[in-house]
Amino acid sequence: MYEKTFPNKRYKETLEFLEANVPAPAKILDLGVKNPFSEIMEAHNYQVKNTKGEDLDLNTEAVQNSDCNVVTAFEIFEHLVAPYNVLANIKAEKLVATVPLKLWFSSAYRSKTDMRDRHYHEFEDWQFDWLLEKAGWKITNRKKWTNPVNKLGIRPVLRYFTPRYYAVYAERI
What GO biological process terms does the UniProt entry carry, in alphabetical order (predicted)? Predict the structure, then answer.
């Protein structure tokens, strides 16, 4: 199913990481509104609830009141001004999250037309690890992968060798 959708490599890597750390049929609260990856998780027998699009910097009730045992956050924390607030308030005991890594050769993503579609943070792996640790999480598995693009130039070549995505599986301490 995900093989024919964009971005297929990211979906493939994310699903493999999720399945390796949290086997189906886990009950998942997926941060963010329903999206193509939510549907992929459901197609692989996960029970998925999504947040409603609330501003998670200001309103963490969804993670505090959820009865799910796993929270997933796929490319969410980079959009938040204060991701610590959400991470510290998650009631679930398990977390699977991915973030785009900061690339030394490329500026942080910023949409010129959509104020909400911007990266406030692009983390180095150690920064994201530290954030999770301070919020009460212990990382037990991690993975990085590249995101090559079919373009010409120095930056596209560097994307073949430089990891762009970072996935972690963490448990509440």
Answer: methylation
